Amino acid sequence: MIYLIRHGQTEYNVARRFQGGLDSPLTALGAAQARAMGLMLRTLVDPAEAILFTSPRGRTIETAQLIAQEAGIETPPIIEEGLAEISLGSWDGKTGREIDDATSGHWSSLDPHSWYFETPDGERYDAFQARLAASLARVAAHPAPARIIVSHGVAGRVLRGLHSGLPKEDMLALPVPQGVIYRLAPGNITEIDCREAII
User: Fold this and answer.
1) DSSP letter (8 states) at residue 16
2) Is the pTM of this model over 0.90?
3) Do the annotations mark residue 13 as ligand-binding?
4) Fewest CB atoms within 10 Å of the CB: 28, 85, 118, 153?
């Protein structure tokens, strides 16, 4: 079974800055989200049979470490480079307003779900989708009975879309909550909401 998680809330999330290839530490709420998901996973998986796969970004590694502590998973997380968030190039770290000001309003005219792939010097959809598909295949091939992926917002949309066979426009419109676990079973995805357990 594969479980998919988005990292906990970060300082850039609060500031509404697009992180992309950059990083930002978890907030207190983000750490609480990670711990709540770890406690939930303790009830769902045998920690001795679980393995964490994480993007190389600090925010996902921090989330994975907190999850492991609460879930009782002692095996160190595996860093899976292909799970990294989309790089927005020179738009990394900026807010929508800053991008809009720099592009004379062009950003606000772009599709709200697919603009990530229309940055001047960022990653494009085909390459992004291909590396995520390769990472998902590697995770799926791992022999551990419970494989837990800690990734990102846009990356998580594409991973769920790949699992479900969704067309691009549908996968990019998927919600990307924090504090939620997605169980990727053959033929379906179950959402497990941990937000009520956050203290």
Assistant:
1) T
2) yes
3) yes
4) 28
